[in-house]
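Protocol step 4 of 5: obtain the predicted structure for the target chain.
Materials: sequence only (see below). No template structures provided, no constraints applied. The aim of this step is simply to have a reference model before the mutagenesis design in step 5. Sequence pasted as it appears in the construct record:
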Amino acid sequence: MQTRSVLVTGASRGIGAAIARALARDGWFVFAAARTESAVDALAREIGSSGGRAEGVVLDVGDVTSITHAIDRLKDRDLTLDGLVNNAGISPSAPLVHAGEDLVAKLMRVNFDGPRRLIEAFLPEMKRQKFGRIVNVASSAGLRGYKYVSAYCASKHALVGYSRAAADELEGSGVSVACVCPHYVDSPMTEETVQRLVGKTQRSEADVRAFLAAQNPGGRLVTVDEVAAAVVDLMRDGRNGWLVELDGASSKVLEKR
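Step 4 output (structure tokens):
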């Protein structure tokens, strides 16, 4: 495969960093994007020292101005973005009727509107060149509901629904849209959930981690490398309309065209 460029959001740590490393190993030029400049620059240097090619990009997907600046920066490079991995997200929790307007709006802004805006920015050029790979990292929360995270589930359901509709519309265009929906992942985001639950329940960290692992059908936490491998597979083959669930037991293709 000729060297192609891909933007990976939320790449400063966890799943995003694993995806960036895996795509670089697969031959992509990776624009590693996140809010913290020092973190993405360090990741780009790490990838470069391992023989890959990468560049850090400052991007807050919940901020329209930040998105605009990042898009302008990439377009000023006079390159066509060939791939987009929408991984950045947040997962605060709140009881059903107490989330509040601000929290619900923030979840939709980061988890749905950010990916949507990036797709809308780069899709026209992908369609023109008849090549594009878009993978949205959603969640099992985009497939089912969980207590105390109704707004988070709503934002991930929105992303999954958008991905399905986009895949239908883009069938035959050369641009593919797919979704990866992992259950609980052994990642910094899950660690934040662990700490919240420890504070609320007074249970030990080990007990809380075991509880979360038991919620996965496979009885264990999904690894960040498993998520990264699923993304690379979808990006490499351009599997339009695929919906891949990672549950700690296996990688399930729930939907494909």
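Step 4 remarks: The chain has a mean pLDDT of 94. The chain has one domain: 5-183+223-255.
Proceed to step 5.
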